[in-house]
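dumping this here before i forget
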Amino acid sequence: MADVKLHPDWLARIGGEFDQPYMGALKQFLADQRAKGKRVYPRPRDWFAALDATPPQDVRVVILGQDPYHGPGQAHGLCFSVQPGVRVPPSLVNIYKEMQSDLGIPPARHGYLKHWAEQGVLLLNNCLTVEAGQAASHQGKGWERFTDAAVAAVAADPAPKVFILWGSHAQRKAANVPGLGPGTPHLILRAPHPSPLSASNGFFGSRPFSQANAFLAEHGRGTIDWRLPETAEVAAG
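structure:
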């Protein structure tokens, strides 16, 4: 990972992971994939975009995704988010529907979520890369251990946070984090995944956005402005 730089505050907490053998194996795997001409999403400079956009001391909410989008031009390192100009994916459409029901915020016309990340919403995927057109193709290669370390570092900080766990995959990942067990100072919100396959089984009506803000306000941590800028170009700055 020598060609990728990580935010220094994250390096201070989880930088030791880069010295572990699994990270060397992961780096070699990614190099081999690219040498074979396979397209890997997102581009290397965006692999750690979620961590760069939300330094650990700024995290107030954690949303866990599974893999980057594997379609052309979609993924840019933030879970559920797509680059400006890309059609809003179905799961994010449902997230917007729930946000409108919960907070009365009309759905954004784009899917670029960096506005959330800049306010302390860590939008972290379980795996940080994927092969084009091949969902879950980089699972089991080492990313899970790295992102486990990032989640554990956030959970170990006693400042109250909200962990929004959509779907069994995110819930299983969080279940292995000691700081999210009994007695945690954090709020854990669980619901089905917003995918069209499962959103009607309890995601709709779960009200995660208002619950997150109520908890943050109660603990003196402000609130998240979930309303996105009108255009993705404004959001991208």
